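Input structure tokens:
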């Protein structure tokens, strides 16, 4: 798990901070507080920071770039817009501008 920050691309959009349950160079599945402000298809800015103990599992310590919201569900599998849950999961597919930043020490 790593810390994830999502932000809309409109001026004044506030960040939504949560945790990454699954991350790769293709995208991230993030658990964030509800309500989720973007609909599938929306473009967001995304940053995922991995804790130092996870750097042995990944060849990078941070992913950053834009991504497109693919789907958003709560823990019960309901669409987030219908959810009464405190937390939702959002799947974000990275666009081609994603950057993977390496770790200190070359892992």
């Amino acid at each position: 798990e790593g810390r994830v920050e999502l932000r809309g691309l409109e001026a004044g959009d506030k960040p939504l901070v949560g945790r990454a349950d699954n991350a790769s160079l293709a995208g991230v599945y993030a658990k964030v507080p509800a309500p989720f402000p973007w609909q599938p298809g929306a473009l967001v800015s995304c940053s995922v920071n991995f804790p130092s103990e996870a750097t042995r599992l990944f060849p990078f310590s941070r992913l950053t770039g834009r991504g497109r919201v693919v789907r958003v569900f709560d823990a019960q599998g309901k669409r987030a817009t219908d959810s009464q849950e405190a937390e939702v999961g959002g799947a974000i597919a990275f666009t081609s501008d994603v950057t993977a930043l390496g770790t200190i020490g070359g892992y």
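The CA atoms of residues 23 and 52 lie 15 Å apart. The longest strand covers residues 62-74.
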